[in-house]
Design brief:
327 residues, mainly beta, Immunoglobulin-like, 5-stranded mixed beta sheet, 5-stranded antiparallel beta sheet, 11% helix, 46% strand
Length: 327
């Protein structure tokens, strides 16, 4: 604030402002200054020099002349505000997060605080008398927080409705994998829900699993998904890679797959009972899963696009893999 002089003209006022780097508007005697300063509040008159006004949290106002401008005029009044005003206030380092989060609350109350009482809806602990408590939240929802401070005589409360928001982690599932043979081509992983997540693990590259890279054995495949709130969850399944070599050598000669290439019908004859036949396209996607109870089976190939396919034939004696071309 700038006080207006009843005796200085505008030129003097402007020179004073320039000298002290003052940018606020002011007027001298030829700009209505005397009339503007003829105001008395609480017995004090705004006269002649830079003045200040301090409003305390309880809305009590103090003002006086600040001369010279570099003097710490504010300090006594600010201290008086701190000593005579009781006002609850607080902040938190986090207000939005996913499940299983910890929040540090900081008491920023004003006044001679001798005791405090916190209430944390949905938090653990649910109450506290600490100055800066740490609270854990594990249940999704929007939760209120309140702080009541006391100076031994008076109390003041600050309550923030829905101050803390805890987002639920997404439910993520991954379906079980079938056993893959070592000589299978790389194939696309599927079965993760919700869609749009990422697969990771040995032999996995950009959602494609390569049995030859992973090698024979059990491999943990992780499916991770992050929702629109930035909350993440995951599920894990084991994908087993079998060499399939010994099985193929023993029974491959007992199974006939013809014609190859096939145009409309693919015939499968086996000396052993056939339990199932699975057909994968060149990307490794399962395109057909036939349950069989017999030794002979015919597949209508007209429903498939032209290309190279992998047959996985499960018999009573083991699993045989074979490549076929559909024209």
């Amino acid at each position: 604030m700038i006080g207006l002089s009843p005796s200085d003209n505008n030129a003097a006022i402007n020179a004073y402002k320039q000298q002290h780097n003052i940018t606020l508007y002011a007027a001298g005697t030829d700009g209505g200054g005397p009339a503007a300063i003829n105001v008395v509040t609480d017995g004090q008159n705004f006269l002649g020099y830079p003045t200040y006004c301090i409003v305390c949290p309880d809305k009590e106002m103090s003002f006086d002349v600040c001369w010279p401008p570099t003097a710490p005029c504010f300090d006594p009044y600010i201290q008086d505000c701190m000593e005579n005003t009781l006002s609850a206030n607080f902040t938190a380092d986090l207000t939005e997060f996913c499940e299983e989060g910890s929040v540090t609350f900081t008491d920023q109350s004003v006044g001679n605080v001798t005791s405090r009482s916190w209430i944390f809806e949905g938090g653990n602990p649910s109450t506290s008398t600490d100055q800066n408590p740490v609270v854990n939240y594990s249940v999704a929802g929007s939760w209120d927080v309140s702080l009541t401070v006391s100076d031994g005589t008076n109390e003041n409360t600050m309550e923030m409705t829905d101050y803390i928001t805890v987002y639920a982690n997404p439910e993520v599932t991954l379906a079980q994998f079938d056993t893959a043979c070592l000589n299978w081509p790389a194939f696309e992983l599927t079965g993760g829900l919700p869609v749009g997540g990422e697969y990771s693990g040995t032999g996995v590259d950009n959602g494609i699993f390569d049995p030859a890279v992973a090698g024979v054995g059990d491999h943990e495949i992780t499916y991770s998904y992050t929702d629109e709130n930035g909350c993440e969850n995951s599920d894990v399944q084991v994908l087993t890679v079998d060499g399939c070599t010994s099985v193929d050598e023993n029974i491959a000669g007992k199974i006939a797959v013809y014609p190859n290439p096939a145009k409309e019908i693919l015939n499968i004859h086996s000396e052993y009972g056939i339990n199932s036949i699975k057909i994968f396209n060149f990307t490794g996607q399962l395109v057909a899963n036939k349950q069989v109870n017999g030794k002979v089976f015919r597949i209508n190939t007209s429903q498939f696009d032209s290309g190279v396919y992998l047959l996985r034939i499960e018999t009573d004696k083991g699993i045989v893999s074979d490549r076929v071309v559909i024209e």
